[in-house]
TrEMBL record:
Tagged with keyword Glycosyltransferase: yes
Record PANTHER family: GLYCOSYLTRANSFERASE (PTHR48046:SF6), UDP-GLYCOSYLTRANSFERASE 72E1 (PTHR48046)
Record-linked InterPro entries: UDP_glucos_trans, UDP_glycos_trans_CS
EC primary class: transferase
Family per similarity comment: Belongs to the UDP-glycosyltransferase family.
Keywords of the record: Glycosyltransferase, Transferase
Protein name as annotated: Glycosyltransferase
GO MF: UDP-glycosyltransferase activity
The enzyme's E.C. designation: 2.4.1.-
Keyword Transmembrane helix: no
Length: 468
């Protein structure tokens, strides 16, 4: 029957919204444009309300299967997100092998796709006889280039990256100061570091790598990637894949935006798990107030002194406590006419698409960056964890789509940079113009340009030589 013969891809998302969202977008494009049905596989730990709601809303043609839980209770309490995701993946390989083998028996399973922490699942695909194994890289080419170089850098750089006197220079990439190398690589004694080196070695086992970026945002890196290199799988830039909602949901913050003047509001949000240390949260509040601009701020309770939330809230995106108690005294009252605070979560793509939104203070999570570019919103870079500092370097020093806050992040710095970007004067004007150009390039690429062609080529490879 036709369902049996329709090409089918199985895709495994490691447990972060920032990994799941673009992978689901890839699934949607495969279904809608290429007639490839997909099964999204998720880990048992991905169980927050936000995540379930997202998965439940997937369109027809995309199945969702949750892997059975695995025991992680032997891992110490201070285990990092990267190690947790990696361990969960390895321990899920036996169950995944069974699931893929069953899908292979009943459908025309042409490919298995895993994301950046899931390369160990290639073993399951191999054992289950899935013909192709692809890596989906939800970050950008700068961070992929670094990842692919990591096995060599691990050997050639004896100390810690943050102690390097010179920036790290990689083909086609903006020079990366040592302290801006991604956080999981900054402590070689942590098991998380060894996991990263392990994953990066395994990327070479992929038949090809699909990257959620586009050429205009990092043209030199894209050019460098096109030069074939022995041992490196071919790389396809297929982005920007960003969240698209079938029906816009009603949200009070969107009603509030409706009542604000065009291009007047600065949107402040730190991704699905980012939280600021208490002192920075207070400076941000005072900085926004000082800037005199309208703002919409997704507020979370501050990260603990132990730095736990510097890694993001792993298991759920909901703030545990009332974050308002951490704000400076009188702040809410003083700013009530110009500011709106929402707790923990806002419909970000709708906010960025709104005509009242003028600038985005962002943690530089790559999905947030792509969403901002897709809607031509200039950014103020406030990186927190993961590879966000690297993204900030590439945006501020490379393509010029953001102004980066100085390390001190005092209220005066915040007010000045926010004003510069919102008012679009001086450096703010340059950033605004660059972002407008990037929006155009991103849209064209997806519609009929390079990104659309790259994905079509991938699907051709998946379906070549099939008996119909
Ligand atoms: N997001 C959202 N509302 C929020 C916070 C985040 O819709 O209040 C979405 C955002 O639009 C993006 C994703 O969650 O698609 C966050 O991914 P990103 O890579 O920016 O950061 P991460 O959460 O991985 O740190």
């Amino acid at each position: 029957d036709s369902a049996r013969r329709q090409p089918h891809a199985a895709m495994l998302a490691t447990p972060r919204m920032g990994h799941l969202i673009p992978l689901a977008e890839l699934a949607k494009r495969l279904v809608a444009r290429h007639g490839v049905r997909t099964t999204l596989l998720t880990f048992a730990s991905m169980a927050s309300a936000t995540q379930r709601e997202f998965l439940a809303a997937l369109p027809a043609g995309i199945e969702w299967v949750s892997l059975p839980p695995v025991d992680l209770s032997d891992l110490p309490p201070d285990t990092t997100v990267e190690t947790l995701m990696s361990e969960e993946c390895v321990r899920s390989v036996p169950a995944l092998t069974g699931i893929l083998a069953r899908l292979g028996e009943t459908t025309d399973l042409v490919a298995f796709v895993a994301d950046l922490f899931g390369a160990d699942s290639f073993d399951a695909a191999h054992d289950a006889g899935v013909p192709r194994r692809y890596l989906f890289y939800p970050g950008n080419l700068h961070s992929l280039t670094l990842s692919l170089s990591l096995p060599e850098l691990d050997v050639s750089i004896p100390g810690e990256f943050r102690d390097l006197a010179e920036p790290v220079r990689l083909p086609g990439c903006v020079p990366i100061p040592g302290q801006d190398i991604p956080a999981p690589l900054q402590d070689k004694s942590n098991p998380g570091y060894k996991w990263m080196v392990h994953h990066c070695k395994r990327y070479r086992d992929a038949d090809a790598i699909l990257v959620n970026s586009f050429q205009a945002v990092e043209p030199d890196a894209a050019k460098a990637m096109r030069v074939p290199k022995p041992g490196r799988p071919p790389v396809y830039t297929i982005g920007p894949l960003i969240k698209t909602n079938a029906a816009p949901r009603a949200a009070p913050c969107l009603d509030w935006l409706d009542r604000q003047p065009s291009k007047s509001v600065v949107f402040v949000s730190f991704g699905s798990g980012g939280a600021l240390p208490m002192e920075q949260m207070r400076e941000l509040a005072l900085g926004l107030e000082l800037s005199g601009q309208r703002f919409l701020w997704v507020v979370r309770s501050p990260s603990g002194d132990d730095g736990a939330a510097v890694n993001g809230n792993y298991y759920d995106a909901e703030s545990k406590k009332d974050p308002f108690v951490y704000l400076p005294e009188g702040f809410v009252e003083r700013t009530k006419d110009v500011g709106l605070l929402v707790i923990s979560w806002a419909p970000q793509t709708e906010v960025l698409a709104h005509h009242a939104t003028s600038a985005f203070v962002t943690h530089c999570g790559w999905n947030s960056v792509l969403e901002s570019l897709q809607h031509s919103v200039p950014m103020v870079a406030w990186p927190l964890y993961a590879e966000q500092r690297l993204n900030a370097v590439m945006l501020a020093d490379g393509v010029g789509a953001a102004l980066r806050l100085p390390e001190s992040k005092g209220k005066d710095d915040i007010a000045a940079v926010v004003r510069e970007v919102v008012e679009g004067k001086g450096r703010g004007a340059v950033v605004r113009a660059n972002v407008a150009e990037l929006q155009e390039a991103a849209t064209d690429g997806l519609r009929h340009g390079a990104a659309a062609a790259a994905l079509a080529e991938v699907v051709d490879k998946w379906t070549a030589g099939r008996s119909m």
